[in-house]
Each structure stands twice: as C-alpha cells, then as structure tokens.
C-alpha cells in the first residue's frame, strides 16, 4: 500500500467523520426545537382544558347608552385581561379605549392584581347605542380560545 492510497483513505475517513458530525449536529438542533415546540403546545392545551368562563349578566342603561357585562372565571386557569376579546351584536369592544374598558372587579381581585384568577369577575363596560325592543348576543373570548355567549333583550 503506497502513500497515495493511505492519504486518500485518510481524507475519505475525515470527510465521512465530518459529514457524520454535521448530521448529528443538525439532528440534535431539530430534536431540541421539536421538544421545545411540543412543550409550549402542551402548556397551551393544558391551559385550554382548564379554562372556562360564564357570562353571568349583561345590563344596559338606556339613558347613558352604557352596557356592563359581568363574566366569571369558572375554570382553573389564570388569564391576562389584555388578551380577552368581547363582542356585542358583532361589534368588537376594544379594551381600554375611549368607549370600552375590561378589568377585574376590584372587590373580587384578591390574588393577583390585574390578572383574571379563578372565581374572579371580569367587568366589561362600553358605550354602545343599541335599539330597544331587540335581542342581542354578547360574546367573550379568552386567550385560550374558550368562549361564552349570552343573549339579552333591551
């Protein structure tokens, strides 16, 4: 066996070893990213299973055009009020704007201030003109995709 054969075998061995190392590195990164995404999806689904809400009452004040919606967190998950969406008669009530606000009632906000904990009541207030003698649907949607609807008449 001559020097040329030994050199070419060594070069081929180094190339195969480099390819195997690169392949192991790529597979390790793929496995890590897959594990991370599965973990975050699992946490989201766990919160979704534990989440439940109930619209308890909708009150309309015809003189001021104010609607107050009371929603109880009947599940076991904590929710951030910023990610709560509310609709009345297909009108989106944007949180903390000039016409709408969404917040946890202060007398029920006993655990984490500003976070909607289990058993606490969320108050959604808005100024919205609606016609009397009609039936409307209120809808509240959580950050985990859980919703509740409530029909009320004015």
Explain what the structure shows.
The protein is of the alpha+beta class. It folds into 2 domains: 1-50; 53-153, Immunoglobulin-like (Sandwich), CATH 2.60.40. Helix content is 31%, strand content 35%. The protein is built from 1 helix and 10 strands. It has one helix at residues 3-50, and strands spanning 53-61, 66-73, 79-80, 85-88, 91-93, 100-104, 115-116, 121-127, 135-141, 147-153. It has a 4-stranded antiparallel beta sheet with strand order 1-2-8-6, with no helix packed on it. A hairpin with a 5-residue loop joins strand 9 (135-141) and strand 10. 17% of the residues are buried. The model has no long low-confidence stretch (mean pLDDT 85).
Short summary:
With 154 residues, this protein is α+β, with helices and mostly antiparallel strands. It has one helix at 3-50; strands at 53-61, 66-73, 79-80, 85-88, 91-93, 100-104, 115-116, 121-127, 135-141, 147-153. It contains one helix and ten strands.
